[in-house]
Write a structure and sequence with these properties.
Length: 162
């Protein structure tokens, strides 16, 4: 089973919807490409870039444990004195997610193709690995699995993929 990776930052496997709406909420696992310093007048390029993966491969019966730490990201304009040709004029600012009903959603399939390089990887001892290199797509109609939860009251959820 291959699960499509939805972001360039730290292997974001889940799409986050909410609160209380079926609209994707910007989130990432780490603060790559954030601009906390620039917003406060410390003009440096936003964070370190993250490596890019395209799919999480799961062997039959395997599971992958991910975490969301209750942060969402909002587009923010950098102060004019911080804008230059290397850093651009916008970045992401990390803010605390509001309380409400959210949904984690994943897209998965049994075959992928069109990756920049190999669409395969060698699973670790837990039965999963990340296909690196970007590109590619799920062949055929993907399976969509989701789980809803009330944040911050519920902090542990499973998203079973059949």
């Amino acid at each position: 089973m291959y699960v499509q990776v939805l972001s360039e930052c730290d292997m974001q496997v889940f799409e986050l919807l909410g609160p209380d709406a079926d609209v994707p909420t910007p989130w990432q696992l780490t603060d790559c490409w954030t601009c906390e310093g620039g917003i406060n007048g410390n003009c440096v390029c936003p964070g370190e870039p993250c490596f890019y993966t395209s799919f999480l491969r799961l062997e039959p019966g395997a599971s992958y444990r991910g975490a969301w730490f209750g942060a969402v990201y909002q587009a923010h304009d950098l102060p004019p004195e911080c804008v230059n040709g290397m850093c651009g004029s916008t970045c992401s600012q990390r803010v605390q997610a509001s309380a409400g009903n959210y949904t984690f959603r994943v897209r998965a399939g049994t075959q992928v193709s069109g990756c920049d390089g190999s669409c395969d990887c060698l699973p670790n001892g837990e039965g999963w690995c990340f296909v690196e290199g970007g590109g590619g797509s799920i062949d055929g109609e993907p399976t969509v699995a989701s789980t809803s939860f009330a944040y911050p009251d519920q902090t542990l959820v499973d998203v079973p993929i059949e």
